[in-house]
Amino acid sequence: SGSGDKYVKMLDTASITSKAYGRKWGVDVLLMKGVALGPSPEFAGANKIEIVQTVLDLSKTPSNDHPTPYDALLLLDADAIIINLDLDLLGLLPNDKMVSGQRVRNKDEAHTWNINNGVTMWNLN
User: Over the chain, what is the mean pLDDT?
Assistant: First the structure.
């Protein structure tokens, strides 16, 4: 997801590899430009709430466009780029876990509550 001119440009660039990954692994790739909840661009992270809800809703109600439920979800910020298309990213996710990257700054404690949600993987099983 991305909001604001600089993030939309990043998303356009990053989406090239995301789409290539989707084609290689047979997964859907959805892009969101702008924000669904809250003012733009301050609440771009709120897009993730809307995306997770949309995917859960799609999984509950099969359609011709999407006949089977999603079993996993990988969310990437506009500035996150997949560089190894040969790695099955969702295959790294244990069936009973959700994975999120920890915010990494020198001043943060080792087990900070301040979580960066720029890259998250969700099990929807």
Answer: 77
> Are the C-beta atoms of 123 and 93 separated by less than 8 Å?
yes
Q: SS in 3 state form for 87-106?
A: CCHHHHCCCCCCEEEECCCC
Cα angle 115, 42, 3 (rounded to 5 degrees) comes to 100
Q: What is the model's pLDDT at position 11?
A: 86
pLDDT in tens, 22-61: 999 998 888 877 777 666 666 666 677 778 888 888 877 7
3-state helix, strand, coil in the chain (%, to 5): 35, 15, 50
Strands 72-76, 115-123: pairing is antiparallel
Taking the CA atoms of residue 96, residue 103, residue 19 and residue 12 in that order, the dihedral angle to the nearest 10 degrees is 150
| Eight-class DSSP state of 27 | -
Distance (Å, whole) CA 47 – CA 63 = 23
58-67 confidence digits (pLDDT tens): 877 777 777 7
Query: Long-range CB contacts (< 8 A, 24+ apart) of 99-103?
Result: none
